[in-house]
Amino acid sequence: MADEKRLNPIADILANEVEELRHGKGQPQFDNDDFPSADKVKAVGERVGFVSRDSVAVKQDETQEAVEVRKPYRWTTGRNRTTTIRASDETINLFDKVATKLKLQKGVVLERALAAFIRETGVDVDD
Amino acid sequence: MPIIVFASSKGGAGKSTSACLLANALANTGANVTVIDADPNRPLTRWASHAKLPDNLKVVTNKDESTILAEIKESAANSEFVIVDLEGVASVTVSYAISRANLVVIPVQGSHLDAVEAAKAVRLVRNQEEAFERKIPFAILFTRTSPAIRGRTLASIEQNFKEAGYPVFTTQLLEREAYKAIFSCGKTLYQLTSSHSSNIDKAVRNSEQFALESIRIVRGLPVEHPDSLDHGQDDKPNVAEIA
User: Fold this and answer.
1) Which residue(s) pair with B35 in the sheet?
2) How many Cβ contacts (< 8 angstroms) between chains A and B?
3) B148-159 pLDDT, tens digit each
4) CA nearest to B229 within chain A
5) I want to staple B65 with a disulfide (CB 3.0 to 4.6 A). Which of B16, B44, B93, B178 is the partner?
């Protein structure tokens, strides 16, 4: 045993120090009530860059709001009906040419053509 | 009972190894020691799952920042020593643990990067001391150093710390194969044999010097230079071991 002590005196000194600590000599006093609250500790840490690394759950209504904000832009013309008109090749070709030349949809060409026709003939379509 | 926290926002500074060595040394005296592994990489939890730990040495895994304070409180109520190994980032968990510490050990390798992160930890300690009017003992611990070669960078960092008034452990944790073998072999330092690593006796003495100095700081006692405690025994690793 004496030989062991000579081999490693630090182990004995350390054991003595721990034993003294165990008997209250130099034992730090603990009282959890004296410790600062978690919120205060967090605030002090954040001031010097020690911030939360945990993920934060997003509330459902916040998620919904975010979705609505990101709703894609959509523009509707109201031209969602189809009709079949019997016409000659020349008329159909002319219709295509006008729409192409004016770079307009055929529904728009039809609307404008009807409006011009009403203006020209003065026909009353409100009846 | 004393709560000893290992903090540095730099990964790889030696927090887990030095925390493990302190826990080993204290447990070897017969003290009841709990290590809280608060590093998300769980190095000490992994080590404990492979090692056959003595009954008086326990490793518990902390879940996240919301549980660390309760974990420390519970461990302090049931153990003679609580050792907290923190993650290598500047986080709220670090703030929480330091707020309960009786000693903050800040490991630093001899690099400028480590020194900068160490300074951040010191700033946090000092901010808490000022805000809460509570003295929080802390000290810089140089890790993985070589007594055979003392680089200019290390000397410069030591000088900077001295000028900044940072307390520095007189003991340095040397670069030792035995410290790596603890993790690679899944053993405590005291379970290693010559088949695992060479110079285990020197590794034991080095880690016990560090443990002794830690306890004296906690107790508010003056720290003796390790050479005066070692009664002239040479603790320097040989050059071959360093290489």
Assistant:
1) B59, B83
2) 126
3) 877 888 889 999
4) A10
5) B93
